[in-house]
Amino acid sequence: MSLYFDAVNILTEPASGGSFKSRIYSARNLRATPAQIYALIIETSKWDRVLAEVIDRSDLLNLERKLSPLLALLLVHDHLIAKKGISAPTSHPLRQAVERHKVRLKAEFTKSRVRRGCASIEQFKTAVLREKREADGSDGFVYPRWVRVNNIRSSLEEQLKTTFASYRRVESLAELAPEGDDRTARQLLYLDPHIPDLVAVPYGADFTSSTAYKNGEIILQDKASCFPAYLLLGDRGPKDAWQGDLVDGCAAPGNKTTHLASLLAKQQTHHKRQKKQVFCMDASRVRSKTLQKMVSLAGADQTVTVLPGQDFLALDPMDERFEKVTGLLLDPSCSGSGIIGRDDVPQFTLPKAATSYAPNTQGKKRKRQANDTDESGEQRSKGKASDVKPSSDPADENDIPTGEVDQDRLIKLSNLQTRIMEHALSFPHATHVTYSTCSIHLIENESVVQRILASDVAKEGGWRLLRRDEQPEGMRKWTHRGVRRDRDPETKAEIESSSLSVDDLSEEDLDACVRCWSGDAEGLGGFFVAGFVRDPQFASEVTETKSKAKHAVVQDKQEEQEQDEEEEEEEEDDDWEGFSD
Ligand SMILES: C[S@@+](CC[C@H](N)C(=O)[O-])C[C@H]1O[C@@H](n2cnc3c(N)ncnc32)[C@H](O)[C@@H]1O
């Protein structure tokens, strides 16, 4: 019986960090084996809708008051579906509480199958799974595992021949969706058409024990998180390699930094030794340790200098160390509202509790709360050096969203993001800067862009947005672009009542901004990125306009002064009461 109590405890305790499976395997005080508990929970979750129906119709919970809804679901699963039945001595009171009703339970289970027009248990299982996916909205929704090949240590060709040798290429992301009851990873691979060296595999694929992963040849990084470095360095090769140094100002845990280094490696010819070219930093000392480990694991120590605990805003753009900096990538802290919960804890439809049963949390559908857990990168990086793995989870990069929109916090974030960007634009030799967030809110995205473009530093430096037609090929092809008003994250429809709008941005500006949304066929969370470029022509136009304006002001002032003097003279004349006729 301990198996069922262990499963109930696992499902009802507050979630701590890590995947659901790893939480079971690292849980203490379990009496059953983790494998047994995991299998029971996963199998029961496939049948929950039917089991809840059977339990309700047979009135089990009103007849057996000792059973909680969740415990009943697990026990009835094993009673009706597991080959060996309930895993407890026949004399155990809870086993008896279920088996006393075996005729009724069996009859309701059969009726449930017949109602769905299924002739066999297999057909029944497939129908029930389809029903479950339709009900939870996950039907047709693909959220793959994204894998970036690190060009410092390997190449896409090499990885296709080794790590992915047994994988079959598919032509669409949709083919990575689980089929039937197959929620486990199948060996399928999709080459991303937008980001070079990025592949997608079914979500359950686990590379953490693969040599390629341990050696930093592959990095588990979400597709959207690859946009900023690609937008900055693009499809350059040895012939048109990036000139100058780069800064990643908000870099931990280091996904985008190592991506920059990987793209630079691709541009370098083999005989040319890479010089230090990327300065990266994070204001948090603890997160900087993770950053350094990620950089080393990716083999990027030759290219990347980590400035631990460095506040980007305190960096002096005039410092001679940065005089060759031509590009900056800024991915500051944000609300994280675009991060989709990777909560892999199975969600159960439960039977109705008996009227006199006082349920604990077992009676509710569990959803992980952001503050249940301690999953910020800050906390994670407190682990041992050997714990540090290339990050795959956007939650490692950002705050975990609470689901509630705190307007004051968004305003503060937006102000800080704008300051950070204005500081980036003040690097004297910078020509390209990218700005990104994993937020869906206009106030952190297009609105920040609008504020930056309106700033003195942008106007004086001749900064404008990197137009879509100037973007690297993969980004040009990406169709989801900037929006003028906030959108409903579910329906993607504009929120008419939203008072915030970005009226100063032109249609061309919005087309320059790149958006990602969760819940569509792209397999991503919410993300935003925009590139800024210094345009000398634009600068001179601005300077010219400014100097014309200045000139006009000076002229006006001069004229004003002359007039004043004339008037004064007149007044003086008026005041002169000397000679008279
Ligand atoms: C969204 S995360 C960056 C994720 C990272 N770019 C990646 O791809 O792995 C934001 C990071 O910015 C850091 N940060 C926030 N403000 C900063 C500042 N003023 N200077 C330097 N780092 C800052 C935070 O500590 C946090 O680690």
Brief sketch in words of this structure:
By secondary structure, the protein is α/β, with parallel strands linked by helices. The protein contains 21 helices and 13 strands. The chain has helices at 2-12, 20-26, 34-57, 60-63, 69-80, 93-99, 102-115, 121-136, 156-161, 211-214, 223-233, 255-267, 285-297, 377-380, 394-397, 407-425, 446-454, 456-461, 473-477, 507-512, 536-575, and strands at residues 145-149, 168-169, 188-191, 198-201, 218-220, 245-248, 278-282, 304-308, 325-330, 432-437, 463-465, 514-516, 527-534.
Question: What are the SSEs and their pairings?
Answer:
Elements: H1 2-12, H2 20-26, H3 34-57, H4 60-63, H5 69-80, H6 93-99, H7 102-115, H8 121-136, E1 145-149, H9 156-161, E2 168-169, E3 188-191, E4 198-201, H10 211-214, E5 218-220, H11 223-233, E6 245-248, H12 255-267, E7 278-282, H13 285-297, E8 304-308, E9 325-330, H14 377-380, H15 394-397, H16 407-425, E10 432-437, H17 446-454, H18 456-461, E11 463-465, H19 473-477, H20 507-512, E12 514-516, E13 527-534, H21 536-575
Parallel strand pairs: 2-3, 6-7, 6-9, 7-8, 9-10
Antiparallel strand pairs: 1-4, 1-5, 3-4, 10-13, 11-13, 12-13
Helix pairs in contact: 1-3, 1-5, 3-5, 3-7, 3-8, 11-12, 16-17
S-adenosylmethionine is lined by residues 225, 249-256, 281-284, 287, 311-313, 331-333, 397-398, 420.
